Predict the structure.
Amino acid sequence: MWLKAGVERRKEHLINRLIHKFGYTKCLNGRQLYELTLTELEHIHIRKMAEQGQRMNVTYK
């Protein structure tokens, strides 16, 4: 019971972050974010974070 609630909270957090931080609302295959599994949401979030990091183009000396 607690595990399911934790998974649902994490999914909700990732969905909110994808929508509000990245403007990502649905997948290329047409599925809405709420239809995805936690694993799928985690992969999308990681990919979006990586894309954002690449766009920053920060040079360290």
User: Anything to note?
Assistant: The radius of gyration is 14 Å. The mean pLDDT is 89. Helices lie at 2-22, 38-56.
